[in-house]
Amino acid sequence: IMVTTGRSGSTTLKNLVNSCPNAQMNGECWGALIDLLLFYKKMKMTNTMPNSLEWENGFCLQHLKRQIRSIIEDTWGGADSWRVFGFKDIRWFNRLDLLEILFEIYPDTMVWCHIRDPLEQSKSSWWASDTRSVYHLEEYNRQIVNFHKLHPDKSVLTHFDDIANGTKMIETFKKFKLDLTPQAFKRVTKH
User: What is the pTM of this model?
Assistant: First the structure.
């Protein structure tokens, strides 16, 4: 899962992942996974409520977890040959806690935390028309960096400027067990 902000270079990173054998990084999905994880979180909370008529439910949490996994895999998992699959999304602001649920459902999940300098980023595309974009981006980056600090074994942190460094990108990809070749790096980043 790539957790990032808009106009940070994440599409280029997605394309680099897709240049690797047996890997597929899907594009954004308007926070659909966030909604799915929030649904699971609420159902899990319901399942832990005191045993009373108001909270009586007939669902099995383990069955629900399998259904969530099935939805994720059927929606984003794609081909059986993909060893690594995922997607990027820019809508995790104030929602990074939901990734804890993803870790519960998929213990081997790795999160790619990606940021860009807020001042530079605020000049790009739609951010330029928002006078508060720098403040929003600073806070979002703070959340992303803090998430990475809390989960250093389950996440990798990169910066927009890292994308231009082929050697650094190849090393970063190894952390995800992906084989990014210098040729693929050049082909994807030449645009």
Answer: 0.91
Q: Which helix (H) or strand (E) holds 187?
A: helix 182-189
pLDDT at 55: 62
Q: How much helix, strand and coil, in percent to the nearest 5, is found in the chain?
A: 55, 10, 35
Contact between 136 and 130 under an 8 Å Cβ cutoff? The reply is yes
| Edge-to-edge strand list for the sheet holding 155-159 | 23-26, 84-89, 2-3, 111-115, 155-159
- Measured CA to CA, the distance from residue 173 to residue 184 in angstroms comes to 12
Q: How far apart are CA 88 and CA 2, in angstroms?
A: 4
d(CA 16, CA 45) in angstroms, rounded, equals 38
Phi-psi region of 57 (alpha: psi -120 to 50; beta: other; left: phi over 0): beta
Q: How far is CA 105 from CA 58, 132, 133, 157, 189, in A?
A: 21, 36, 34, 22, 34
CA gap 119, 133 in Å, rounded: 9
